[in-house]
Amino acid sequence: MSDVSCVITGGGDGEGPGGADALRASVESVLGQSMRAAEALVVLASAADPAVRTAARTLAARAPERVRLVHADPAARTTGALRNAGLDAAAGRYVLVLGSGERLQKHACRNLWQAGETSRADLIAGRWSRIADESGKEREPSWQRELFARSRTLSRFTEAPELVVRDALVTGFCLRREAVRRHGLRYEEDLAHGEILFGPIAAASVGRIALVRRLIVTGRAVPDRARDLISLVEAHRRVANTLLAHGLPELREEREKAFHRDHLVPLVRSFPALPAVRRDRVAAAAARTLTGPVPPELPPLERVAVSLLGRGDAEGVLAAAYALSRPATVCAPLTTGADGRVGWGGEGEEPVADITELGHQYRRFGEMRLMNRLTRCAAADGGRLLLEGRLVLPGHTGPAPGAPLTATLEFRARGGARAVAFPAEVVRHDGTGITWRARADVARRLRPVGVRDTAWDARLTVEADGVRSVSDLFAPRDQVAGAVRFAARPRLGRLAGDTWEPYITVKDHFALRLAARRRPARTAHRLIRYATHFRPARKAKLLVRALRGRLDRYRSRGFKAPAYNTWLTRLPVRRGSVVFESHMGTCYGDSPRALYEEIRRQGLKLHATWSYDPSPAGFPDGARLVRRWSWRYLWALARAEYWVDNQGFPQHLRKPRHTTYLQTWHGSAYKRMGFDETRVRLQNAPQRERLQQAVDRFDHFLVRSEHDVNTLARAYRLPEERLLRTGYPRNDALIAERTRAETEGRLPRPPLAGELGLDDHKKTVLYAPTFRGGPGKQRKSRLLLDVREFAERFGDTHTLLVRAHYLESARLPVCPPGTVVDVSRHHDVSELLAITDVLVTDYSSIMFDFALLDRPVVLFAPDLEAYAAERGSYFDLREQAPGPVTATQEELFAALAELKKSDTRYADQRRSFAGKFGAHDRGDAARATVAAVFGTAASRGVRHTTDHHDRGAGR
C-alpha cells in the first residue's frame, strides 16, 4: 500500500497546455520523490490524445510498481470527472491531486506525509509557485509568505482565513483518504476550474489542518482569465456561498476583495495584449457575469478597472489597464464635484469611481502625464508614415478650446541622444482631448547608423500658451501588427537593415525598429550571427567575459579590502589629512559637517577629504570628494592622519597605526545597540569578533550625557579614556537657534524655510520615523502615518515635512501644494529641526536632539510594545517621553489639534528630558572637540587647505 497517491489526469476537457509533455513532467516529479512509497495515479480520458496515451503507457511500463493507469468511463470527459475517478481509485493513505504540468518538489510527499502523521491532520497544505511569464520563471503569490511563514496545526480553517479567502488550496495540498470518503469530497464535474471550489470545501469539511512552510508544487499554469472568465466567476461565487453557508459573511467579503485583486485586475492588465475582437468579447462576457458591487476597499485605479469591466466598456478597460501600470498618468477626463472630490469620467458622464487620492487635481498641464492614444497607423502618400491619435485632457487644466495649439512628433533613438522631429499637420481641441495627425517621412529623414540605434521611440510634444506637454504614444499590441513597412537607409548601408517596422513595446508604446527583410540584409545578418556564434567567436567571447570578470574582481570590495589591509596601510601618513564621512557617505551633514566647518572657521591646516555614495550632489564645492569604496577612497583612508565619521567606516578596513579615529556617533539610544542587541548576541563568534575589531578602531567617542556612557559606551565596550564628554557638534546649531528664538523671536525663519516654500503663518510639522530594518542595502518602507489624511485634516494650518531614514525611502502620495514636502534627501537634519515647530517621531534618536529647542514633540508609536519586545529598549518611553505618546492615527491627530494644551502639560517633562539626555550639549561641542582631537594640528599654526582639482574623483 502506498503512503501517498498522486492523481494526475490526462485528456480531459479544459485540460491545461502541454499535453504529453505536461503529463510526463508531472509523473516524473512523482517518481523522483525521496519518499519511495508515493505512487502516480494517471487517469486517462477516453478521448485522450494518442500522444498522451503513449506517454502514460511508457511511464507505466518503466515503473509499473509506482505508476498506475486508470481508464476513465467514457462519460467522464471533464477534468473534474477524471479527478473524481482518481479519488475513487486511490489506495494511498493520503491523496494529492496535480494539475496539468505541475511538478512536485523532491521532498514534497515526505514533508506532507510527515506533517500529517505528526499532527494527525486531515488536510496538509504547503506552498506552491506558478509560471510567471513566457520565460518560464516561477513566482509564488505574495500572500503565501505570511500564510506559510511557519509550520503549524489548525483546529479549524478559520484560524487561517487566507486558506479560503485566497486560492491557497488549488494545489500543493493532500487529504487523508479516509477523510475524503467520510466527508464525500468530490470535484464539481460541470466546473472548468473546480479546484478553486474543491479546496475551500475540503478545508471547511475536515477538522484539523496542518500547514507546512515548505514549497510543495511548482509549474502551476496561470489561468487564461480572458478565456475562462465565466467559469472563474462561477467557481468564486460557489466558494462565497459556501462561506455564507458556514455563517462567515466577513470571510465572504474578504473573498470578494481577493477575487477582484487576484483575477479581475490581472485580466484588465492583460487587455493591451489581447486582439480587439477578443477584448470586445471579454468585455461583453464581463458585463453579463459581473453583476455584484465593486468592493469599495480596492485602490482607486483598481476600482475604476473593475467597474469599467463590469460595464462592458472595452475601450475604457484598455485605458484603465494603461493607468494601472502608470498611476501618475491621466488616462480619462476627470470630473470635479461640488465637494471637491474627483471622479474618473468627463462632464455629463456618471463618474466611474472616486480617484481623488491620486492627486491629479493638484497638477497642472505640462506637469502631469497624459495618455496619448494612437488611433491610426497607416501608409500615407509619398511613402510616409501616417499617425493619428488623441491626447486626453483632465478637465481642470489644459489649453482652452480656442487656444492656439502646436504639436511635434518626435522619434528618438533608444539609449541615445539623436532625435528627428516632424510637425503635426492637424492639432484640434475636441472638448475633452486633443486630436492630432502627423506625417513622417521616416524613409528619408530617419538615418540610423545601423548598429546600436535600431529602435526609435515615438513621442508627441503639444504646446499651448508657452506650456509644453510631452507624451508617449499608447497603443494595444494588435494596433500595428503587420500594418505598414517603410524603406530604411542606415548610414552603414542597407546590409545593416533595410526596413522600418512599427511595433508596440513591452510598455505598450509605439516605436520603430530597423529590420532585415530583403535577401542581402538577411544574408548579412546571418553571416554576422554565424561569425559571432561559431566556435572561435564563442571562445573569444568567453575570453572577453573572463577578462571582464577579472577586472570586475579587481574593482570588487572582496579584492580591495585585502589589498588595502596588506599594502595601502603601509603608506606613509600625510600630515594634516582628514577623511570625513557622514552616514556612510550618503550626505554632507551631522557632526562631521559641523567639525569640518569649525576647522575651516579656525583656519587649521588640515587637508579635508569627504566620501560620498552614491552622488556628490550637495557636498561643498571646495572639498575634495572621493567615492566610497573607490581606490582613491582607500588611498585617502590609508594616508589620513584623522578619520571622522558618525556611523562607521567599512568594518573590513584596518585603521593604520598613524591614524586617529574620531567617532562622533549619530544619536543617543532608546533601542538597544551593539552587543546589547539580540541580533548581535545570536551571531556566531567570528561575527561578534568582527564587530569588536571595528569598534576597537575608535580612538575618541563623543557622548552627550551619562545616558550615552551607560548605554552606547557600555554596549560597544568602550573604555572610559576614549569618551569625550563634549556633546554633539551638530547640536551647536540647535542651541544657537534656541537662543536666537528666545531673544529675537522665531521670525524670520532660517533661509531653508524659504527654499522649501514654507508659509510663516502655518505650523511646520516634521515627521521623522526611525529605521525599522536591519543591515543591508537601502529599501523602501511604508510610512505608518497616512500623510494624505494629514493633508486633508491639517493642510490649511500646517505643513508636513517628511524625512525617511537615510537607509530607507518612502514614496509619498500627491497632496495639495504646500501641505506635504519630502525632505528625505536634504543633507543636514539639523537645518530641518531649526525650522520645525512640532516633531512627530517614534523611536528615532532625533527626539533627543529636538528636545534641545524646547518645542513640542508628539510620539506616534502604534507598535510600541512589539518594537520594544523585538529590539529591546533602555528605558520606558511612556514614562520619560518629552511629549504625548499616541498609539493610533486618530490619537496623533487629536494631540496635534490640541497642541497648546499638551505643550503646557509636557513643558517641564520636555525640559527634564533635554537636561537628562543632552547634559553636555552646551553649544560649544565643535570647538571643544576640535581642540581635544586636532590640538596638534592647531599648535602647528598652519592653515586649512583643500584640493580643488580632485572634486568628485574616485571610481
Structure description:
- Residues about 775-780 and about 940-950 have low confidence and may be disordered.
- It is built from 33 helices and 39 strands.
- It has about 950 residues and is of the alpha/beta class.
- The protein is globular, with a radius of gyration of 34 Å.
Helical amount? 25-40%
Distance between the termini: 67 Å
Mean pLDDT: 90
Task: Please count the beta strands (DSSP E, at least 2 residues each).
Answer: 39
Structural features:
alpha/beta; 955 residues; 36% helix; 10-stranded mixed β-sheet; 39 strands; 7-stranded mixed β-barrel; globular; single chain
Give a brief rundown of this model.
With about 950 residues, this protein is of the alpha/beta class.
What's the SSE blueprint?
Elements: E1 4-10, H1 20-31, E2 38-44, H2 50-62, E3 67-71, H3 79-89, E4 94-98, E5 103-104, H4 108-119, E6 123-131, E7 138-139, H5 144-147, E8 152-154, H6 162-165, E9 173-176, H7 177-183, H8 194-205, E10 209-220, H9 229-245, H10 249-269, H11 276-289, H12 300-311, H13 314-325, E11 329-330, E12 334-336, E13 342-344, E14 369-370, E15 372-380, E16 384-392, E17 406-413, E18 419-429, E19 433-440, H14 442-445, E20 455-464, E21 467-474, E22 486-487, E23 499-504, E24 510-515, H15 519-533, H16 535-555, H17 557-566, E25 577-581, H18 590-602, E26 607-612, E27 624-627, H19 631-639, E28 642-645, E29 660-663, H20 678-681, H21 685-696, E30 700-702, H22 706-715, E31 723-724, H23 732-744, H24 751-755, E32 763-767, E33 779-780, H25 787-794, E34 798-802, E35 808-809, E36 820-822, H26 829-834, E37 838-841, H27 846-850, E38 857-860, H28 864-871, H29 877-880, E39 885-886, H30 889-897, H31 899-917, H32 925-933, H33 935-940
Parallel strand pairs: 1-2, 1-4, 2-3, 6-10, 11-14, 15-21, 25-26, 25-28, 26-27, 28-29, 29-30, 30-31, 32-34, 32-37, 33-35, 34-36, 37-38, 38-39
Antiparallel strand pairs: 4-9, 5-10, 6-7, 6-9, 8-10, 12-13, 15-16, 16-19, 17-18, 17-20, 18-19, 20-21, 20-24, 22-23, 23-24
